[in-house]
Amino acid sequence: GQQVMQIPQYQHVQEGEDFTTYCNSSTTLSNIQWYKQRPGGHPVFLIQLVKSGEVKKQKRLTFQFGEAKKNSSLHITATQTTDVGTYFCAGNGGGANNLFFGTGTRLTVIP
Amino acid sequence: GAVVSQHPSRVICKSGTSVKIECRSLDFQATTMFWYRQFPKKSLMLMATSNEGSKATYEQGVEKDKFLINHASLTLSTLTVTSAHPEDSSFYICSARDSARVYYTFGSGTRLTVV
Q1: CB contact under 8 A, A1 and B32
Q2: Reduced to 3 states, what is the DSSP secondary structure of residue B86?
Q3: In this complex, is the C-beta atom of B107 within 8 Å of any C-beta atom belonging to chain A?
Q4: DSSP string of A50-84?
Q5: pLDDT number for residue A3
């Protein structure tokens, strides 16, 4: 079955430091989405990447989709305490309508 | 827009009883809804895809008779955990996608504790 792995599993950073999480799929993805889940909350959509090699930016967040459409990354510049949460990548392959979530990276930002 | 409401947010039940969780799309119609289960500090595991007017599609390893799904209307899907046991204790989340949008919207989740 489809597997989507993320590394690292946990990341503690000092406020102001950068953070990156990497997402790798066992199969080629038609698109990839990123979600953020705050502690005790539910996942909230951040962005979708569709094209091979695509790069998108949202303020301090930079998202990349690999050339082979099997991996992706999320980079946060100068983290803030509001960035705390778990970041999940999620993809669906082929004609599948459902999302398979990555294992997630839990970010802790130390003030 | 694209709001999904899930109830209850928390439920405690005794072993052997059944619990029903509702997931509603408030401002859009959803022919398909998805049910996930999340263990503490873990990822979301897709349990099943709920299809309006037809049978749900369950992921491998998910017991159909244990987790009953009904999607009787375009705005409501229910998940019933039957004969609940302590190992069923978990965080259950539903999601749906408004066809006008690319992303999936999640309910606020239901924390089930079976004692």
Answers
A1: no
A2: helix
A3: yes
A4: -STT-EEEETTEEEEE-TTSSEEEEEESS--GGG-
A5: 82
Name which of B41, B49, B102 is nearest A106 (Cβ-Cβ).
B41
Q: What is the pLDDT of residue A96?
A: 57
Residue A73 confidence (pLDDT): 98
Spans of chain B below 70 pLDDT: none
A33 in Cβ contact with A88 (< 8 Å): no
Contacts of A33 (CB under 8 A, 6+ apart): A45, A46, A47, A48, A49, A89, A90, A91, A99, B102, B103, B104
Report pLDDT for A95. 54
Residue in A with minimal Cα distance to B10: A40
Which of B58, B103, B106, B108 should we substitute to test contact with A (largest number of A Cβ atoms within 10 Å)? Answer: B103
Identify the pLDDT of residue A94: 54
**A48-83 tens-digit pLDDT:** 999 999 999 999 999 999 999 999 999 999 999 999
Interface touch A99/B104, C-beta < 8 Å: yes
